[in-house]
Specification:
CATH superfamily of the largest domain in chain A: Jelly Rolls
CATH architecture of the largest domain in chain A: Sandwich
Shape of chain A: globular
Distance between the termini of chain A: 33 Å
Largest sheet of chain A: 5 strands, antiparallel
CATH class of the largest domain in chain A: Mainly Beta
Number of domains of chain A: 2
Number of strands of chain A: 12
Largest interface: A-B, 49 and 49 residues
Number of helices of chain A: 9
Order of helices and strands of chain A: HEHEEEEEEHEEHHHEHHEEH
Oligomer: homodimer
Radius of gyration of chain A: 18 Å
Chain lengths: ~260, ~260
DNA sequence: AACGTTCCCTGTCATTTGACATAGCAGCGC
DNA sequence: GCGCTGCTATGTCAAATGACAGGGAACGTT
């Protein structure tokens, strides 16, 4: 309980995030190196990044990595696992903003503002690579390539949020679900989390509802309808899309322009 | 009509955007210098920026600055006026993503990807400061301060989109409208477009509807309700909020952390 | 075995929002 | 004056979505 506060800052131990203080030497075994969907840096740049690495943190499902309104000491790159960004209203309503996959960078807002505008929670057991917030711009601005990559990630995150806004504003419940399922499965494919096209990820219907701005009950019924239609088979622990192209058409998603994502 | 294509690329003349080829010498009279809501660079940095400036473009209300899916040769900083980013679905549905005010940077997605994921349309007569897309990273990465500012702008745009997602997902029609009105008036105050707290900007109810994901009819009724309640008086050419704090409470917006925005 | 928890599912009814049809009103060119 | 056009306003009805209440399966703990 004395540790309770630390969990909010990425410093928690044991029960709420386990910090392992080890430096860049571990970067040779970086699990992201095997990920086919990512753009890998030149050795020189990788070593530059490694020199800033502070260690590694683990969180279990349900644990909070960042808490809205706090000033975290560390920023992270996701090494493995899946997380979600959420935003709370004072009256308890919750909106899930987006999901984060291996290679994604966590805490950009804190990097420029000091303070987080949203919370981040682990959806699976996750491993994160930690950098000191105060060193971040030293890390990034002194390597033009990293500065570019950071901007790339920010611009693409913006594009993902745009797509989500289109969903919430223009698509009905079923279209939204299909759009979300396609997005998740696609990211799963890119990061090796969806062997044989089935994403193994446990998302509750309550979480889907909070992501799509629907009630839990309506979410449930719409999911059943999609299952009957054979478009998306979304179960608690997995998402299966029999025909990705057809699902795309149904949700009126345009073709995904497959480019390699950079990471830091 | 031979010029038709150029309008999509920021090169149009006369009827669709008027390009004035003049360089950094005009930067001494930059209209943004008078804007109190902005963070102004040191002389040295301003001159560095000026050396990249390619000229100035004007667009009238209704003209498209960028068209979704095209590769624009220029990127812009807004010098005066207001614009909106929109995204179209194949079946004609339109979602307005956000509004842009003086000091905002246009075309970040094109800067990293080459291609625009959305369109940008002028809501008033606007003046834009043009940079070559191909020179952009030279401009930004060789000045750590500019690299920081660009990231700052991207992170804050992301935060604005988050807030919009919360609106679309969790707030009902009236709350959404109040939230949008507060956002617009606040940005108007920061950029000198809202003398005496009344934002002079013509936004049609159809545009409000496309921004908030509501039907035109429902938008109309909700606007009337808000007028009756005395919360927001939104007319075709102006937005007035009698009590900003009360409006914030109504829409459950948390206090805006007033910081100076950088610009490039 | 009994219990508590978490999640998925269903029924019924209320509310919100949308669709369609129509009217008014200001501006504008002629 | 007239006929346009773009925007705002209303009425009526239908569809989408939410609120509330409760049941049942799976699973871990005692």
């Amino acid at each position: 309980m004395a540790r309770d506060d630390e969990s909010a800052t990425g410093l928690g131990h044991a029960d709420m995030g386990h910090f392992v203080r080890n430096g860049g030497e571990r970067c040779r075994e970086c699990p992201l190196a095997e990920c086919s969907g990512l753009h890998h840096h030149a050795l020189e740049v990788r070593e530059w990044i490694a020199s800033f690495r502070k260690g590694e943190v683990h969180y279990d499902r349900g644990e909070q990595v960042f808490v809205q309104g706090t000033r975290p000491p560390y920023l992270f790159t996701v090494l493995s696992g899946v997380l979600m960004r959420t935003r709370l209203l004072e009256d308890g309503r919750r909106q899930i903003i987006n999901f984060m996959f291996p290679g994604d960078f966590l805490g950009l807002q804190a990097a420029v503002d000091g303070e987080m505008g949203h919370s981040v929670e682990a959806l699976t057991r996750v491993t994160l690579c930690a950098f000191a917030r105060t060193q971040f711009f030293e890390l990034v601005t002194q390597q033009p390539r990293l500065s570019f990559d950071l901007t790339w990630l920010a611009a693409h995150e913006e594009a993902a949020l745009e797509e989500h806004i289109v969903s919430l504003g223009q698509r009905n419940a079923r279209e939204r679900m299909v759009a979300l399922a396609v997005f998740l499965v696609q990211r799963g494919l890119d990061t090796g989390l969806a062997p044989e096209g089935v994403l193994q990820l446990t998302v509750t219907q309550g979480q889907i509802a909070d992501m799509l701005g629907l009630s839990l009950v309506h979410t449930n019924r719409s999911l059943q309808a999609l299952r009957r239609l054979g478009l998306v088979d979304w179960k608690l622990t997995s998402i299966r899309i029999p025909d990705l192209a057809e699902a795309r058409r149904f949700a009126r998603l345009d073709g995904s322009s497959q480019t390699l994502r950079p990471y830091i």
